[in-house]
Fold:
Amino acid sequence: MAERYELRFSGAGGQGLITAGIILAEAASIIEGRSAVQSQSYGPEARGGASKSEVIISDQPIDYPKATIVDACLAMTQEAADKYANGIKDGGLLLLDADFVQRAPQGNFKVYRLPIMRMAKEDIGREIVANVVALGAVIGLTGVVSKEAGEQAVLRKVPEAFKELNKKAYNMGYEKGKELLN
Amino acid sequence: MAKKVALLQGNEACAMGAVYAGAKFFGGYPITPSTEVAEVLSKELPKVGGKFIQMEDEIGAMASVIGASLTGAKSITATSGPGVSLKQELIGYACIAEVPCVIINVMRGGPSTGMPTGPGQSDVMQAMWGTHGDHAAIALVPNSCQEIFSETVRAFNLAEKYRMPVQVLFDEIVGHMRERIVFPEPGELEVIDREAPTEGPDTYKPYDATKGQVPPLASFGSGYKFHVTGLNKADDGFPTTKASLVDAEERRQIAKVMDNVADIESNEEYLTEDAEVIIWAYGSTSRSARYAVNELRSQGIKAGLFRPITLWPFPAKRTAQLAVQCKAIVVSEMNLGQMIYEVERVAKGNCVVAGEFRVDGEPINPGQIMKKVKEVI
Structure:
């Protein structure tokens, strides 16, 4: 992947999507040794309202640090989908939370759905890890970093007591994301 | 051993650069989008025996920085546009009293409270002319997290070497984005410490021009006593209105910078050699410009990038040379045209000078720069 690859994570402020972006950028730049830039929308309205985090990954140094045309986008809520699921490249992909996004934006990209919040709550037992489930799913779907790099980056970020929980969340997301490709 | 790496925000990299440079004092008042600089230094400075003080406001913060520096501590403050406005009188005081200090300005939209969370580059003229009176200024404008680290170190070096305030300006985009930083080992980047006086306290004069353009500064608390004032002063630091002394001091304080532009200047050029159009851009806008240059080149348009890293003193000589060699210069900045006046001044009509500006809180994207380049060529 020599060219730049652009990802956008969007959802409700407080859902941990900026953290998911940071973890992905660490997986690419610290663990895999490639270039990555992470940025976020930064507004007083962010908490509760729609928020987004962007990650650019490349094997070359990255000049323009914001998204130009998005390769992969995640939207966890309807508001986020309406506001941020745009500028997606032809042939790109959009992953939606199956329960929280009813209307998918139109475009020449593939739309995938996973009940991300429900998986976190019911399968893992903690809604708070929904961002890690989502991160796993995006990595499974896109292969933008290796499964192992993503897992290592998650584990670097969380306190000891929550490592198992997050590992489980990441791996479930990853497997479900990969299954969507079949 | 492998070097330490981390994914850091620009603001965090700035704080770590200050620690690397040997900063021992931060006095500030938090303001978006600069707050992380203070936050990180509040944790890091105590670990190295330094002090962190959150003052009652930005004016008090600047005063505390000047006071701390006079005791010999490398001192820094960080703020954004409204805070820099409040600090202006004391920045002038630091200029005339010749007190080394570093002022970080993470630029947002303005004037006044403006748009606290949006990026801007509209404080660049303020960095030169914000405080009143004739004076020289040094301002650095890094464009990446790694460069914020190294330019913060250089800001301390220049402040200590030339005994004056140095500003580092970067916009909210670079301040808040995260990139990998490779931490330099101790000794890898040059760290300059203040020159101490060679004579004893009885004969020491803090503004003795016979000691050179930058007379050594003694530290309070080390046995030296001297007078510090914002008034024009004689070599002993006490006020004077004697015309010849005032004139010589004013001129020395500007000459210490302008005679040393070669030491202070730092620029980056990308594909300027055969360029017909040169994009003149700094900070995050220069990253958009570099992207635009690559795209334009792939379309057969000979574009290049000139990026000042030292914005003040203005890179007049090189900009004037480029104006002779190319057909057009496109100045792109997140304001409604500030540095373009300087570019026009030194281009002297030798090439077309056009501007591509933006002040809506969104970054200048490569597409709009490319469009402007195509218009002027």
Remarks:
- The two ends of chain B are 51 Å apart (CA to CA).
- The longest strand of chain B covers residues 101-109.
- Chain B touches chain A at residues 5-7, 33, 116-117, 172-174, 176-180, 284, 287-288, 290-291, 294, 363, 365-367 (CB under 8 Å).
- Residues 5-182 of chain B form a domain with the Rossmann fold fold (CATH 3.40.50.970).
